Amino acid sequence: MFFQSKRDILYFIAIWGTVFIIILGSFFDTEPIVIKIAYYLIGIISIGILIWIWFGTGYKIEDDLLKAQCGPFQWKLNVKEIRKVRKVKSIFTSPALSIDRLDIYYGKYNLIRISPENESEFIDLLLKENPQIQLKYEAYK
Prior knowledge:
The protein has helices at residues 9-27, 33-55, 119-129, and strands at residues 2-4, 57-62, 65-70, 73-78, 82-89, 100-106, 110-114, 134-135. With 141 residues, the protein is of the alpha+beta class. It has a four-stranded antiparallel sheet with strand order 1-2-3-4. A four-stranded mixed sheet has the order 7-6-5-8, with no helix packed on it. Strand 3 and strand 4 form a beta hairpin.
């Protein structure tokens, strides 16, 4: 099952504001043609990656794996290795488009932060795959 990332206004403004600035900058460009071509190429690639991140961030649980996708970036971890899930608020870099996140501790010292739109359904599916997972808050039980 695929879980889309929750999206906050902060990330909406950051991603779509950057896209808007790149597009707006192309209208006021007075540089020589060689620099314009380089600017347009970099701009198109940047816009493509930002749109890919916006629409392509989500999580899938299948075959005992939790797969996190954030645009062109991917993470895979074994659900059986997950030790603990904890609810946090964070703006640090991770495959998430919301500050409301889940810290997933796996392996010995590993951590990934994600923000599934439907947290309770996501947690239920994780627990079905690995009932040994510790939950930080009673609200999940």
